[in-house]
Write a structure and sequence with these properties.
Layout (H helix, E strand, L loop, with lengths): L1 E8 L6 H12 L9 E7 L4 E7 L13 E2 L5 E9 L2 H10 L9 H12 L1 H7 L2 E9 L4 E6 L8 E5 L2 E5 L2 H5 L10 H10 L12 E3 L4 E5 L10 E2 L3 H10 L6 H19 L6 E4 L4 H13 L5 E7 L7 H11 L2 E7 L1 H5 L5 H5 L8 H12 L4 E3 L4 H5 L3 H13 L4 H20 L2 H9 L5 H9 L29 H27 L4 E3 L5 H7 L15 H8 L18 H6 L3 H8 L1 H7 L4 H13 L5 H19 L1
Parallel strand pairs: 13-14, 13-16, 14-15, 16-17
Antiparallel strand pairs: 1-3, 1-9, 2-3, 4-5, 5-6, 6-7, 7-11, 8-9, 8-10, 11-12
């Protein structure tokens, strides 16, 4: 895993030294992503410079160093990620007469591009990646991000200079970059707890969406848009056109075969490899398939907490004991967990408020003491209907759908006016009241995702905040499958995978996600819904696979989140910190958030009349980020 940066000055007058210095400064912000080596390449005649920080995983020799130029001299690449089928691609390229200097997947990728072109090379690649490749012949720079958005990539125009990087901090240090906070993006953050792609917290700075490429040439307009080469919607449509025709048992066997292959590919490295083990279904499937292969010993990592409601380590320990694997458990005190909070603004670069960011960092930190690569179970909930909210939405809709929409909206207004904040302080009650006003289940989905009910009224100067569902057209499937598809396209890359990437890379750990092999994703969408959620049981095929390797008593239990008791901490040990960030005079002087609604929520939370932990955590993460930005 690595960090990449670059700049393309279309009207360049900069010297080679100036270009290299600018790229080196940007890359210097990403040493945590690549502590082993740094490299810079520049072509002053073209105005292009590329920078790289390397975390050595495959081919630890200098033959794997970047930036890397193809044997023909035409293409130069900086690349972050892993191509898991690089051995097959190597064999295909060798058969076509290509020679190789080393055995890194970087060299395979750049030579694949040289022989087949960017589009064809990417379509053949199985992996997680974000890369930029310069074509010296066409004088074009192309950015590419992997299908599911596992690896990040940001870009912007700074005058006539195009800049890109793995993290926002590298763009901020560019000498001509003058970042302005995007208030509409801030409103979206208060709505979702993350900023959905392609927006970022800064005006004019963008995330390259998953499954997209963007090409910039000498005459490209600054408004040039990314082009999709893969999408979740496309996977759903293809799955509907060619559905799986076998039995449920055959589907489970086919899925297990794909997952075994994915796990085997993702274990390949020239450095130690382990896995996260929470004791839940998804991580246990990954660890179980690692253990079942038997060729290499398995090392798994778990953190435990003093608070029983947040501690899953006994479940993970029982599973590891059954498999007799090397299991490393670290019990984390509340004080140690809270000590992570001051680091969060620097780790995430923009406001991010999923509270599980804290334990994700802690388990990454634990794993990095022993290995350089760790496999994670992310993706199972989105692919196989694992989130509790799916069943919750369905149940709520069945209770209210019989009432005509105008009467539901009237009931919603009356409920909120009469009961008002005294009762609505309980977030569940607030959601139920708003739910009465929706017209369909898609709106109900949006309401359940909403943190601040009207975030544009909280953010000064915001024009509005659209829901993540607004930009996604309906997929040809059931409502439950539509929610799963929407989560895969939005919540997964912008929240879950962002959290995993930043937390792991902050400690120079490469995290891999075998369940998100695109072949697994595409196969999942060929399955009928009853093969995913069966008789009310979510993630049914994953449970069946796990049951082949583990007694059900060790994994069949109610789902738990991966979090910490933020609400309690805000009333206790974090109160002084929060009081400072939420002070009315501070909010008013900063000029981003209206003090009234924020302070009201804070007082209600402290008094115990409400549990506004998630809404307050959103504001605190913005305030903490803003403070870090001002002091940087």
């Amino acid at each position: 895993m690595c960090g990449i940066v670059g700049l393309y000055e279309r009207n360049s007058g900069s010297s080679a030294d100036a270009l290299r210095e600018a790229a080196a400064k940007m890359a210097g912000c990403l040493v945590h992503r690549g502590p082993n080596e740094g490299g810079v390449w520049a072509d002053p005649a073209a105005g292009i410079a590329l920078g790289h920080r390397r975390l050595s995983i495959l081919d630890l020799s200098p033959a794997g160093s970047q930036p890397m130029t193809s044997a023909c001299g035409r293409f130069t690449i900086v690349y972050n990620g892993e191509v898991y089928n690089h051995q097959e691609l190597t064999a295909e390229l060798r058969a076509a007469g290509q020679a190789f200097r080393g055995h890194s997947d970087t060299e395979v990728l750049v030579e694949a591009i040289a022989r087949w072109g960017v589009q064809s090379a990417v379509e053949r690649a199985n992996g997680m990646f974000a890369f930029a490749v310069w074509d010296a012949q066409e004088r074009t720079l192309t950015l590419v991000r992997d299908r599911l958005g596992i690896k990040p990539l940001y870009y912007a125009w700074v005058g006539e200079t195009f800049v890109f990087a793995s993290e926002l901090k590298s763009l901020v240090v560019h000498s001509q970059f003058r970042p302005e906070i995007d208030r509409d993006a801030l409103a979206q953050f208060l709505q979702h707890s993350y900023i959905p792609a392609p927006a970022t917290i800064y005006q004019g700075v963008w995330k390259l969406p998953p499954g997209c490429s963007l090409t910039i040439g000498p005459d490209s307009p600054k408004a040039a848009q990314p082009v999709r080469y893969w999408s979740v919607e496309g996977a759903v449509e293809r799955g509907r056109q060619k559905p799986f025709r076998g039995t449920a048992a055959a589907a489970v066997s086919e899925l297990e075969s794909l997952l075994r292959d994915s796990v085997a590919r993702q274990r390949l490295a020239d450095v130690p490899v382990g896995a996260f083990l929470s004791g839940g279904i998804d991580s246990s499937v990954v660890v179980g398939l690692m253990q079942a292969q038997g060729a290499l010993s398995v090392r798994a990592f778990t953190i435990g907490f003093d608070e029983p409601d947040y501690d899953e380590s006994p479940f993970a320990e029982a599973i590891a004991r059954h498999w007799q694997i090397d299991h490393v458990i670290e019990r984390v005190t509340a004080q140690e967990a809270r000590a992570v909070i001051p680091q969060l603004p620097a780790i995430y670069d923009e406001p991010f408020a999923d509270v599980s960011q804290i334990p994700t960092f802690l388990v990454s930190q634990l794993a990095r003491r022993h290995v350089t690569v760790s496999l994670s179970g992310d993706g199972g909930d989105e692919l196989f209907g694992g989130y509790d909210r799916y069943a919750r939405i369905d149940a709520i809709w069945k209770r209210i759908a019989w009432l005509p929409a105008p009467l539901r909206r009237l009931a919603s207004r009356l409920y909120q006016n009469v009961v008002h904040e005294r009762l609505l302080g309980r977030s569940g009650q607030s959601f139920r009241a708003r739910a009465l006003g929706v017209t369909d289940r898609r709106e109900l989905y949006a309401e359940l995702h909403r943190h601040w009910e009207r975030p544009a009224e909280v953010v000064i100067g915001a024009r509005g905040s659209s829901s993540v569902i607004d930009g996604i057209r309906s997929v040809p499937a059931t409502f439950l499958e539509q929610m799963m598809a929407l989560d895969t396209a939005t919540y997964l890359p912008d929240c879950i995978l962002t959290k995993l990437d930043r937390a792991s890379m902050a400690v120079s750990l490469e995290a891999r996600v075998p369940l998100l092999d695109h072949r697994v994703v595409e196969f999942a969408w060929t399955l009928p819904l009853e093969f995913k959620v069966r008789a009310g049981t979510s993630k049914w095929p994953l449970r069946q696979i796990l049951g082949r390797h583990l007694p059900p008593s060790l994994f069949e239990r109610p789902k738990r989140g991966f979090g910490v008791p933020i609400g309690q901490w805000l009333r206790g040990p974090l109160r002084e910190w929060a009081e400072s960030l939420l002070a009315a005079e501070r909010l008013e002087s900063e000029g981003f958030l209206r003090a009234g609604p924020v302070v009201a929520k804070w007082r209600e939370h402290l008094a115990g009349r409400a549990n506004w932990q998630y809404l307050l955590w959103d504001v605190l993460m913005f305030q903490s980020w803003l403070e870090h930005r001002s002091s940087a």
